[in-house]
Amino acid sequence: MMKLHCLLISTAIVQVLASLSFRDYKRAVFNANRHLERAITNNIGLMQVVTNIVLGDSTIEEIVLLLAVPELATPRFLDGDKCDQTFLQAKIAHFTFQPVPIIDNEANFGDMVLAYLGVNKRSLIGEPRKLFLRASNLLPYLGTARRCTMKLVTIQLFTAIFRGEAPDYDNFGKICSLICLYRSIRHPVRIIRHANVDDNGVCNIRDRTRVIKQYKFVNNDYYEVRTNADQDITLKALLRDQVTEWAAEGIVP
Q: 5 or 161: which carries more pLDDT confidence?
């Protein structure tokens, strides 16, 4: 019986800690979103923020979770993912000189989130409000808001690359990493976990099990391509056309 009590207590503690972790994580994502949107007036600074992260030491999976799909974070790594959101804010403050927003308390946090998402707080009171603000329900909304801001910055970066005005992206490996961010913002359902440029100059973008997209620099331009077992290359679409189409799509998923 004592072992059963210990097991039940341990399970309860784990559940409480997980709840606290998710609470802290959603606050970190929300605060980083507010910080990004306050800094959007400094486009050059935000482009530097994204470039510094995309071309830094983070893995592709870390980059897309941080900048594109924060709602897909897993419970096992929430502490690290929360630190990454704080790291993002440090970059924003450094490159845009926009100070970190402050959240006063938990009650104020709920009102701030509802106002941020354009929800009338009088329409959500009691249990419906609690359910809406629960991390599992709130994070998808915060993820969409993150992608809205990141879409603008990513399009600006690609525009500079296509014009030859982005000296930081001086090789295809770096552009491959930015393509991963673009794919993750535009198609946020699947996490991109790996990417590499192979010996044939093809950017191979992978999820957990397989290559899902390929890109290559061909004829002085960037293309989505398809390769076969013999490494024959079929051109599918110009990257610049994909970005132009994406810019015209409006609201992100």
A: 161
Quote the pTM value: 0.85
| pLDDT given at position 126 | 64
Confidence of residue 33 (pLDDT cuts 50, 70, 90): very high
Residue 11 lies in a domain: no
Domain with 63, as residue range(s), is 23-248
Residue 1: inside a domain: no
158-189 pLDDT, tens digit per residue, is 999 999 999 999 999 999 999 999 999 999 98
Q: For tokens 């044939």, what's the residue? A: 200
In this structure, is residue 4 part of a structural domain? no
Take residue 225 and report the two structure tokens written for it: 């391509």
User: 180, 63 in Cβ contact below 8 A?
Assistant: yes
Neighbours of 159 (CB within 10 A): 15
- For 93-105, how does the pLDDT look when each residue is reduced to its tens digit (9 = 90+)? 999 999 988 776 6
